[in-house]
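The following block was generated as part of the benchmark described in Methods. Ligand: flavin-adenine dinucleotide.
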Amino acid sequence: MPNLVVAGAGMAGLVAAARARELGADVVVHEKGDRPGGSMALSSCVVWRYREWETFRSECPGGDPVLQRLVWERLDDALAWLESLGAPVVVRETGNPRTTGVRFDPRGLTEALTRRVGEVRLGDPLVELPADVPAILATGGFQGNRELVRRHVTTEELILRANPWSAGDGLRLALERGAGLSEGLDEFYGRNMAALPRPFVPGELVGLAQVYARHALVENARGERFDPQHWSDLDVVQWTARQPGARAWYLVRDDALGERVRERTVGEIIEAARQAGAPVDRRAGATRVEVKAAITTTLGGIRVDERGRAAEGLWAAGADAGGISTGGWSSALASALVLGRIAAEDALE
Ligand SMILES: Cc1cc2nc3c(=O)[nH]c(=O)nc-3n(C[C@H](O)[C@H](O)[C@H](O)COP(=O)(O)OP(=O)(O)OC[C@H]3O[C@@H](n4cnc5c(N)ncnc54)[C@H](O)[C@@H]3O)c2cc1C
């Protein structure tokens, strides 16, 4: 009989299971997909926090301040722990002056954690909670469930920019056990992607994100304009998701093509979209790119306390645990890491 059952072998689940094993527990890890790593394995893998606590509060004003404080205070130690497990660091900065953190190699991070966890039961989803063993839900949110996204987020169809298996299983299991809902069920983090006429392959999810809205004029199919203000494009993605077809068009003047967005110029990002087959043309002396909103992770979900507890004998971490980024965006990998560790420690007490 195990001491702990973990649902999900993505960031939060692998972290929780690795920490539990470190504390001497016998852990069973269920994974719905055919590989470990979840969306973490597809991600840019920048695990970060705001440099200043006040910035975190003002960027995510609707989030639970107790959970936010935990993530903010404990992330640096948790990052050092990840490194001590052999997770390979790509760079020790985020490229954003507001934030601090570490970029890991996602494949190496998945392997380092999986080694510590031992067996992961692939293709074996948790469908029912165990009666007398503590369980941690880390199934990665509900963005993969069309019906739940339609009910809570938008009736328009979004591109799924995430693993295909995170479909609200954790939310369902937690509600059945009597857990509550967090704030911000209608909120999500995502990107506006080049509007390809075909599905994306996983390797394109980072490179074909069109992340330069503040250097463009943005309009919908009816020609109505939106004025992006947020540094992360968070506002324009939320807006696009609620426009007809979840589509928008970015008009970029020639003098903006040389603007840098992280390691690329706007012109290079557009060229990558054009080469992949996205609609890019010239209109009114500008380059015009069609984009479509994509959902990476839901931000609302199960309500948890400062120990990650959701209900009797039940914990949640990662995107399953909602209400941390409400009103904005903070690193989902960071909260998965911190809450995953806390949940494991508390569940074994
Ligand atoms: C392209 C891309 C770039 C990103 N870049 C960043 C970034 O740089 N920084 C950042 O902070 N975040 C980033 N993210 C978001 C981040 O990867 C996710 O939010 C994060 O992985 C969430 O962790 P998680 O453990 O909750 O979910 P996941 O890592 O997705 O793991 C959830 C796991 O649960 C499994 N599962 C689902 N249902 C069940 C079930 N019933 N039983 C068992 N297993 C189940 C899934 O198959 C999956 O493996 C990015 C995501 C993508 C896709």
